[in-house]
């Protein structure tokens, strides 16, 4: 298991450029799967505004995840002595402004249900719970130790 703690290596951060790509990919896939499943269930059993709210929230969550991944990669490369990232504080704020503006406009146009958008935005939390359960499983089954 390459994404769990390594008791032999003393460095806190891996210097491999693609060391965490498996984690990011798994989280993204769980977020996408959660969004699609919620959308299918909502399309069958809920009003159309709930379905569009889940779709908008899920898509914004996936976009936010992509922005977060690029931001964290820039910060880690800077910490490891790499090139300075092109990241500014304005980009952090812009990310939230884009999400907030999209939700505000969609809600004002009455095409989404606000609670459904919030549930759609929560797919990241679901993905983190799945990743935590996966890690717990590997620790218990394979008896991996975490320092």
Q: What is the first-to-last residue Cα distance? A: 15 Å
Class based on secondary structure composition and strand pairing: mainly alpha
Largest sheet entry: none
Strand segment count:
0
- Integer average pLDDT: 81
Q: How much helix is in the residues?
A: over 70%
Provide the succession of SSEs: HHHHH
**How many domain modules?**
1
What is the percentage of strand-forming residues?
under 5%
Poorly predicted runs: 6-17
The helix tally amounts to 5
Shape: flat
Radius of gyration in whole Å, from Cα?
Answer: 18 Å
Topology:
Elements: H1 21-45, H2 48-79, H3 89-108, H4 114-121, H5 123-142
Helix pairs in contact: 1-2, 1-5, 2-3, 2-4
Protein model, in words:
- The longest helix is centred in the middle third of the chain and has 32 residues, at 48-79.
- The chain has 147 residues and is mostly helical.
- The chain has helices at residues 21-45, 48-79, 89-108, 114-121, 123-142.
- Helix 2 (48-79) packs antiparallel against helix 3 and helix 2 packs parallel to helix 4 (114-121).
- Helices cover 71% and strands 0% of the residues.
- It has one domain (21-142).
- The two termini are 15 Å apart.
- It has five helices and no strands.
């Amino acid at each position: 298991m390459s994404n769990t703690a390594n008791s032999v290596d003393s460095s806190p951060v891996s210097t491999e450029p693609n060391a965490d790509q498996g984690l990011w990919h798994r989280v993204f896939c769980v977020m996408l799967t959660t969004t699609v499943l919620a959308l299918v269930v909502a399309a069958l059993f809920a009003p159309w505004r709930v379905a569009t709210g889940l779709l908008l929230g899920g898509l914004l969550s996936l976009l936010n995840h992509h922005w977060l991944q690029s931001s964290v990669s820039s910060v880690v490369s800077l910490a490891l002595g790499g090139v300075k990232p092109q990241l500014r504080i304005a980009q952090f704020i812009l990310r939230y402004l884009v999400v907030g503006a999209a939700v505000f406009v969609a809600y004002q146009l009455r095409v989404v249900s606000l609670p459904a958008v919030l549930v759609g935005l929560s797919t990241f939390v679901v993905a983190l719970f799945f990743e935590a359960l996966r890690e717990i499983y590997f620790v218990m089954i394979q008896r991996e130790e975490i320092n």
